[in-house]
Amino acid sequence: MGQSIALVEPINLDRNGDRPLQWQLYESLRLAILDGRLTAGQRLPSSRALANDLALGRNTVVAAYEQLAAEGYVLSRTGAGTEVAALPPETVLEVGRGESQNRHQDPRRHLSNRGEATIAIKRASPRYEKLAALPFQHGLPAMDSFPRDTWARLLARRARQPQSRLYDYQFGPGFPALREAIAAYLGAARGVVCGPDNVIVTAGAQAALDLAARMTLDPGDPVWIEDPGYLGARGALQSAGANLIPVPVDKEGMNPDALPEGTEDPKLIYVSPSYQFPLGVTMSLNRRLALLERAKETGAWILEDDYDSEYRYTGRPLAALQGLDGTGGVIYMGTFAKTLFPALRVGYLVVPDSLIDAFTNAIRMTGQSPAPAIQAALADFMDDGHFTAHIRRMRTLYAGRQQHLIDALKRETGDMFTVPKLEGGMQLAAYLGDDADDVKAAEAVNAARVLTTPLSGYYLKSAPKRGLYLGYAGVLESDIDRAAKKLGRAMSDAGF
User: Fold this and answer.
1) Which of 6, 100, 254, 443 has its CA 20 to 30 A from that of 478?
2) Other CB atoms within 10 Å distance of the CB of residue 389
3) Rounded mean pLDDT of the chain?
4) What is the spatial distance between Cα 268 and Cα 301, in angstroms, rounded to a whole number?
5) What is the residue extent of each domain of the chain?
6) How far apart are the first and last CA of the chain?
7) DSSP state of 10
8) Average pLDDT for residues 6-21, to the nearest whole number?
9) How far, CA to CA in Å, does 90 sit from each of 35, 101, 108, 397, 450?
10) Which sign does the torsion angle of CA 303, 305, 310, 316 carry?
11) What are 236-269's pLDDT values in tens digits?
């Protein structure tokens, strides 16, 4: 038995921190054992002695020692004290205080091809600051106008049902009442032809994209995708191993006629016809019908992302592609992240009858479903009329904020930008000259704590249009004014 020792180094405890002192002590001793400062057979001070040295309660030290013993780092024997256990040589980490634990990474351990494809996707968005929501972050709804009290009441009511089946595994494709509510809403508002069984509830839009790509594509399959287009869709399709074929977007939306002669027929076509991301154009009816015909001829699936369809400020939205299709070839997707709040993490797919069983089984296997209690509260929110009332209020609010942003940009930036008034949406593209460096412009503006993204970052091929992408839905009018002034000053200082 080794002699009792004084610890090699003082143990510094943060007595004002959030972590319990027993865990801080446990981690300090564990690291000293792993990096070799405490070696096998060395005896630790008694719990009473260490408690006195560190001005701790003895129970705190005892708890730390017991945890170390439970994990095999020390041996404790009644009447014999506590000593460091003999660990296998390969267990002792070569961490050397602050050095990376990956110094000797085994080359046999590496990411999959799908993982590599996922992390290789080009970012257009800035890395937002933790807990910060700065203008003009896109995709952010007006949280100041969300009925939080109503939502909290509905969620609490569902959470107070201890005998509810909401706590088991039965809702793979979605909570039945929510699937019914989504089907009813889409039929009335978007002309989508579906029943509750066609609705597959997912953990947000990205989960819906991933599931659709997983179920329809094999590595190397050709996919027609809008150019410019949504990076989230590009990421899901690219990580599935798809061969992405960029299709130009003009004022009528995706234009397959602009593809070169001999372009490979698609296995899947991804399109956002209601409000194209990021240009904000709406696909014309003729172009919609032509796209459906092209998919019918080639046997391709269409993945219809009904992006921002709720926020159209002039007239009624055109019917969804899914409602115009008579061949069962359209998979429709949507999300509540933009209409309610992003952290809700609830999206959905509407799949043709032929895919119901496959997608129902798949989502049970992939676990891409949101919590049933949240789904149940959302069903109540829709059934009680709160959802449609909220959409109506936000449609008016966002139309006003869009115009406010256009006016502020014109006032603060002069003729730097061309900013078209759009028929809907939550963000807009402010165009620079065709030769402008919009990456440099975005960097200058972001440094001034105004979040923008360069339009060129959304193109797969060379970008014929340059500009900044600005979200306005979640920005108060007074903040729009201040941010537009900062944006104009930053652009001017950068030489634009």
Assistant:
1) 443
2) 12
3) 87
4) 5
5) 1-105, 165-384, 389-493
6) 76
7) P
8) 75
9) 12, 13, 18, 62, 50
10) negative
11) 999 899 999 999 999 999 999 999 988 999 999 9
Look at the block and give the residue holding tokens 């999959």: 112
For residue 289, the model assigns a pLDDT of 93
Which runs of E-coded beta strand occur in 85-212? 199-202
pLDDT in the model for residue 247: 96
**Quick one: what percent of the chain has pLDDT higher than 70?**
89
Nearest C-alpha neighbor of 180 from the set 195, 190, 168, 200: 195
DSSP code of residue 44: P
- Nearest one of 74, 56, 68, 45 to 20, comparing CA atoms: 56
Which range is least confidently modeled, 23-37, 112-126, 416-430, 432-446?
Answer: 112-126
Tokens found for residue 385: 């009329």
Alpha helices in 35-175 (DSSP H): 47-54, 58-70, 113-119, 148-159
pLDDT higher than threshold 60 for residue 51: yes
Task: Write out the CATH class of domain 1-105.
Answer: mainly alpha
Conformation bin of residue 408: beta by default, left when phi > 0, alpha when psi is -120 to 50: alpha
Beta-bridged to residue 40, according to DSSP, are none
Q: Tokens 């977007």 label which residue?
A: 249
CA 379 to chain CA centroid, nearest Å: 22
Its CATH architecture, for the domain 389-493, is Alpha-Beta Complex (3.90)
pLDDT at 187 over 90: yes
Amino acid at position 394, single letter: M
For residue 247, the cross-strand partners are 226
Q: How far apart are CA 473 and CA 253, in angstroms?
A: 23
227, 218 contact by CB (below 8 A)? no
The tally of CA atoms less than 13 A away on the side-chain side of residue 93 is: 17
Domain at 165-384, CATH from 3.40.640.10, 1.10.645.10, 2.40.33.20, 3.40.50.620: 3.40.640.10
Q: Which residues of 81-113 are buried (b: 16+ CB within 10 A; e: fewer)?
A: bbbbbeeeeeeeeeeeeeeeeeeeeeeeeeeee
What tens digit of pLDDT does each residue of 340-379 get? 988 899 999 999 999 999 999 999 888 888 988 899 999 9
Backbone angles phi, psi at 68, to 5 degrees: -60, -40
